[in-house]
Amino acid sequence: MESEASGTQLAGSAKRVQDYIDETPLWADGTPVGHAPMTTMQWRIWWLAAFGKFFEGLVVFMTAVALPLIAVEFDMSATQHGVVGAASLAGILVGALALGGLSDTFGRKFMFVVEMIIFMIFLVLLALSPSYPWLVVFLFGVGVALGCDYPTAHLIISESIPSSARGRLVLGAFGFQALGALAGSGVGYMVLVNLPDISAWRWMYASAILPAALVTIGRFYITESAPWLFAHGRFDEAEREAAKLLKRDPAYPHRIKLARSNRHARRHVSETGWSALFGARNRRATILASVPWFLQDLGTYGIGLFTPTILAAALGHAASQAHDVTDIIANQILAAEGAALIDALLIVGIVGAVVLSDRVGRIPLQALGFVGCATGLLLAAFSTHYADPVRTALIFAGFMLFNFMTNLGPNAQTYLLAGEVFPTHVRGKGAGFAAAFGKIGAVLTAFLFPILLAEIGTTYLLYGLAGTSLLGAAVTWRFRIETRGINLDRAHEHAFDADLDAAAGIGREAA
């Protein structure tokens, strides 16, 4: 883009922040440039949000490798084993619900910084845990910070980037969760190989402290969400933050002048509490954002957290001497290798979601993904009827298909939709509630999975998770709201206010 480019003008003078973000320049002869390049600030926000998702994948999925070592050090029972597995997920639930909604009140940037400070504090304490009760407390605290990040990271990205690229950029950042999951398995493996000791789990968690500190510092140096400021009537501040966000060389847009009224926000100023999520205007969005997320987390966290355990049991490598440290470490190294191979498909799946989300749409990918997850789980369940090498092939094929389809579909799309289907003034609460509701499924799975694994066996457990995946596809299609490419500042005044009459096939609005 060169300096002689001039800006396109929207009809009317009542321009909002997203209008400026979506605006593309024209050359002097009227030829459209096509798109305005992302600014340095927009990319900074994206990277800092992406690493928040990386830490979630790293810490939560690394627990799968660390759990057997923790169980030996603190002589844990099966129930305590489940509590440890569920502690960080319970924290995510509380953090998403209790802290995520605070971004609607105190601002996106404020909570974006606070959550990382909380994460840093509890991560250090976690590596130094002196006993089982404190371990649970510190894991819960880490989860609270990660839970707050669910809505906040999404909103700070989606309210800072062009509508046409929102899907792929939000999901691109979300994809760092898969990188974190893979890194978690990798770090666990490397630590065990180089430090074959029960205390190795402490170094696994400690490895994230320095990177987290760098991200915490970086988050102090971003702009506040201009759409959030605009929705709260703070127009001068919104203009200043939007100018910082869109600073380019050469400058474009040359001047930002926002509308001095927001009738839509004023009209619904009383609808900012949690009850607004369940009123007629937002009920459909709340169901779509939360119920499929709950059903998806039942499978994703169950499989993700316990892949090493399932592989060790299904492939006949479970330690027969529970208190033989050498055998436990050897078995976990072997299981970690298999888990890393399977987790690699998470990355392939999220790449597919990034490429297709703004082309195919959120709803088709989510529904198809749920069906694919069920297929993968059924393949793994069928493996029990065969002997090796067919059994091993079906287990790996099933888990790899599950991981690919969950990140192509429900794991990615539920996160994306939750930050798009609510109006700005309750977007933090809506996305936070959806994430918290989803994590109820994750907590239930993490706590009950080891118990059910022992009581009913791997096969019936996988059949049950396949059923919940099919239910997720049905709910997604019944309450579908397509948000591909829409301008979030304006969508809720028009299509959303009419209860999304064209929800089944809403097209891309012109930015």
Summary?
By secondary structure, the chain is mostly helical.
Main traits of this protein?
single chain; 511 residues; mainly alpha; Growth Hormone, Chain: A; two-stranded antiparallel ribbon; 21 helices; 2 strands; disordered N terminus; disordered C terminus; transmembrane helix; transmembrane transporter activity; MFS transporter; MFS_dom; MFS_sugar_transport-like
Describe the protein in words:
This protein is mostly helical. It has one domain: Growth Hormone, Chain: A. 69% of the residues lie in helices and 1% in strands. A two-stranded antiparallel sheet has the order 1-2. Helix 2 packs parallel to helix 7 and helix 5 (108-127) runs antiparallel to helix 6. The radius of gyration is 23 Å and the shape is globular. Belongs to the major facilitator superfamily. Sugar transporter (TC 2.A.1.1) family.
